[in-house]
Design a protein that fits this description.
Layout: H1 4-12, E1 18-23, E2 26-30, E3 45-48, E4 52-56, E5 63-70, E6 77-86, H2 87-90, E7 99-103, E8 116-119, E9 128-133, H3 136-145, H4 157-164, E10 167-172, E11 175-179, E12 197-200, H5 202-205, E13 221-228, H6 245-258, H7 261-276, H8 289-306, H9 310-319
Antiparallel strand pairs: 1-2, 1-13, 2-12, 3-4, 4-11, 5-6, 6-13, 7-8, 8-9, 9-10, 10-11
Helix pairs in contact: 3-4, 7-8, 8-9
């Protein structure tokens, strides 16, 4: 049986592992940037750089869910481990207006602990999405607009935030992700900076979802933190890369221990039939959505691991053709 704490310790020291906390539409991400100092072992479950940080404060009561999703690109797939809590345990404050919370004494870095934390008031179930600042000009505007929605017409707080680029802090029942880099927008050429960054997308927030429908999170559980171990076929900047077999095998160990039963059954069934040389016409895909995702990713991974053949091309043509069941490679964005 895998020890969750040991898995997390190893992942936090792996510069190819990404992390995020948030909801469907408000997410804070921590990624290592190539060329930055390599991550070192820290006291506790944390990692921090000059660009951002992640800290996990709790593992008791956590249910890890390892899963793979279907990329829109038919030669790729994504993978993650969601650290989940029961829905009631995952609940945060759910504030819907800008609210001052006081100095952030629990900040990852000591130099940030006197700066003031404000809940942005996004009203999300499992995350209090905050900003943190010691800038007196921004503090004055935020305090003047406290108690209002940031999305009220004419509220000066949101443009002030976008201009001042305060730290963003995602708080969950499992810990926090902090982002020190600029907010993606006009000052960054319209793109998010490489490495730690945040996304707040009002259209997705209005959906009221805790996570993507394509993430196979069991009913009653809510993902409070996600780790993304090195993808074996996708590079850090989203580029294709040759298969990294060690990365593939390492995630399959997590998937075997913590993957959804339907997914594993669908994937295993497809591989067994492919191994026997059964044609697509003589194969029957699973009935469940999660099982079909496993079936389709089995086809993609079989091709990557074993190369092209008439058999795998036939299977891909028949079974791997539903774009509605694919997942954005940047979940929650």
């Amino acid at each position: 049986m895998l020890d969750l704490t040991e898995v997390l310790k190893a992942a936090l020291c792996n510069e190819d592992t990404g992390w995020n906390m948030g909801s469907f539409g408000a997410i804070a991400e921590f990624h290592h940037v190539a060329g930055d100092p390599a991550p070192d072992a820290q006291d506790g479950l944390m990692q921090v750089t000059s660009r951002g940080g992640v800290r996990i404060d709790r593992t008791d009561g956590v249910t890890p869910v390892a899963y793979e999703t279907l990329s829109p690109r038919p030669h790729r797939w994504t993978q993650a481990v969601a650290l989940c809590l029961p829905r009631d345990d995952a609940r945060m404050a759910g504030r819907t207006t800008l609210t001052e919370l006081g100095p952030d004494h629990a900040a990852i870095r000591s130099q940030d602990r006197d700066a003031v934390l404000f809940d942005m008031g996004l009203g999300q179930h499992q995350v209090d999405f905050c900003i943190r600042t010691a800038d007196p000009d921004l503090l004055g505007i935020l305090r003047a607009e406290a108690g209002r929605s940031l999305f009220d017409h004419g509220n000066p707080a949101m443009p002030a935030i976008l201009s001042a680029h305060p730290h963003r802090v995602a708080l969950t029942r499992l810990g926090r992700v902090e982002v020190y880099q600029m907010i993606g927008g006009p000052d960054t050429g319209g793109t998010s900076p490489e490495g730690p960054h945040t996304h707040v997308l009002p259209k997705l927030l209005r959906a009221g979802r805790t996570h993507s429908a394509n993430a196979p999170i069991p009913d009653g559980l809510v993902p409070c933190c996600n780790l993304h171990p090195e993808n074996p076929v996708i590079g850090r900047l989203g580029e294709d890369k040759p298969l990294v077999r060690d990365a593939y095998d390492q995630f399959q160990t997590l998937l075997s221990a913590w993957g959804p039963a339907d997914y594993m059954s669908g994937k295993g069934a497809a591989w067994a039939l492919l191994d026997q040389g059964v044609t697509a016409a003589d194969a029957q895909e699973p009935d469940s959505r999660t099982g079909r995702a496993g079936w389709r990713n089995a086809i993609r991974q079989w091709r990557v691991l074993n190369g092209d053949s008439a058999l795998i091309a036939d299977w891909a043509q028949v079974f791997d053709r539903d774009p509605a069941a694919t997942e954005d490679e940047n979940p929650g964005h």
